[in-house]
């Protein structure tokens, strides 16, 4: 803890003075982050570090397993964060970011006994769809490492589906104002992969190549063609 406190002093003495113009602008003008990132609370995954983001660039929500509960009447931190990011901050891109060696996903992939941690067990119910996909749709003879990787990837897919149940997100998607991204960070390789919504597969993010996007910006009004026909 003393080491961390020492870094606070270093921030006050060196970091802040060197970036005082940026902090003063953010304090005066408020924030307008470029994206909302929902990532795992794992201490090894730091969204700002991965994206080399400056203060003000990212609106971040972290929790065990990078989970987004489906929209419900009960208030929750993730739900409130999503709603505020979209409706107040006007965020146009939302990233759900999973990672390798995730403890939450490991509990699901090994079907660990979570009786002693009832709150963790209740939280991970929001990933049971991913667990069932892995249990019933992948070969049974995979290694533990392969099972864990598949669980983390499928969990990102499930949480993106949950995001679309949130009214603010659904409305923004329909208007073409919000795009969804699914990422996976391989800690061991220092590799970031993105979900391609057309193929349903993850591929590495590469400089100079098209970015894999789970759901790109674009109007998605189911009744739009009907209205167009009616107007003719």
From TrEMBL:
UniProt cross-references to Gene3D superfamilies, sorted A to Z: Carbonic anhydrase (3.40.1050.10)
Catalytic activity field: hydrogencarbonate + H(+) = CO2 + H2O
GO MF term (any one): carbonate dehydratase activity
UniProt xrefs under PANTHER family: CARBONIC ANHYDRASE
Family (UniProt): Belongs to the beta-class carbonic anhydrase family.
Signal peptide location: none
Biological role stated in the UniProt entry: Reversible hydration of carbon dioxide.
A biological process from GO: carbon utilization
Cofactor note: Binds 1 zinc ion per subunit.
Organism: Sphingobium terrigena
Swiss-Prot/TrEMBL cofactor(s): Zn(2+)
Protein's name according to its UniProt entry: Carbonic anhydrase
Domain of life according to the entry: Bacteria
Alphabetical keyword list: Lyase, Metal-binding, Zinc
Binding-site list for Zn(2+): 40, 42, 99, 102
């Amino acid at each position: 803890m003393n080491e961390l406190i020492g870094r606070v002093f270093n921030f006050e003495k060196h970091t802040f003075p060197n970036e005082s113009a940026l902090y003063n602008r953010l304090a005066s003008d408020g924030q307008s982050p470029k994206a909302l990132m929902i990532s795992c609370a794992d201490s090894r995954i730091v969204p700002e570090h991965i994206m080399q983001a400056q203060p003000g660039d990212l609106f971040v929500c972290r929790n065990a397993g990078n989970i987004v509960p489906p929209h419900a009447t009960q208030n929750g931190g993730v739900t409130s964060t999503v709603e505020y990011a979209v409706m107040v901050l006007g965020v146009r891109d939302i990233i759900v970011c999973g990672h390798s060696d995730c403890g939450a996903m490991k509990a699901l992939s090994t079907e660990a006994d979570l009786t002693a941690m009832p709150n963790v067990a209740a939280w991970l119910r929001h990933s049971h769809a991913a667990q069932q996909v892995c249990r019933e749709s992948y070969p049974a003879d995979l290694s533990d490492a392969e099972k864990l990787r598949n669980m983390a990837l499928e969990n990102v897919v499930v949480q993106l589906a949950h995001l679309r149940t949130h009214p603010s997100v659904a409305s923004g998607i329909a208007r073409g104002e919000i795009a969804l991204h699914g990422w996976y960070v391989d800690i061991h390789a220092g590799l970031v992969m993105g979900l391609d919504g057309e193929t349903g597969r993850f591929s590495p993010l590469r400089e100079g190549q098209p970015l894999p996007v789970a759901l790109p910006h674009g109007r998605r009004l189911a009744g739009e063609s009907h209205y167009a026909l009616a107007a003719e």
